[in-house]
Amino acid sequence: MDNLSSFFINGWDHIVDINAYDHLLFVMTLCAAFKLEQWKQILVIITAFTIGHSGTLILSALDIIPANSKLIDMLIPFTIMITALANIINYNKEGKFSDTKLKYGIALVFGLIHGLAFASNFKFMLFSDSIVMPLLAFNIGIEVGQLFIVLLFMISLWVYTKFIKGAHFKWNLFISGAGFGIAATILLNAVHGGQ
Length: 195
Description:
Shape: globular
Helix content: over 70%
Order of helices and strands: HHHHHHH
Radius of gyration: 17 Å
């Protein structure tokens, strides 16, 4: 049981740790385009992200797919940048690219990419042949950490709209723009560091 709790704690730490800001940044950018009353959609999209990275974790832990850390270091900021652009371009628009199901699909696919980054941490902790319970505990830790971050994010949005009387479009523009800028810096550092 202590071993499973350590997997849970490690999953939690991997998300809420300020040094893992690329994942925090993705979660916040993913939520930026949603309004307070869309909290159910936020829960679904975060869960889609979790399902995506869970799939990759399983495949990587079983050594079915290799983890190329240099490629992952470039792909993760790219996912943040694409999400940020989609938030700004498709804000309050109707059409196939603003469809909520498409957003869930993107979160799922991008979750696969982020799962490769989680995989190295997970595999480092894995000492037994059975991966089912450790993987479940690790994923629950990640999901609870993500929901905690989303809760703080939504409280911030509530304060912004309720007390500052800010427009949601400006909130989305600021969060998505900041996400894009920080991710672009991470990507440039990854490209420069890989040379």
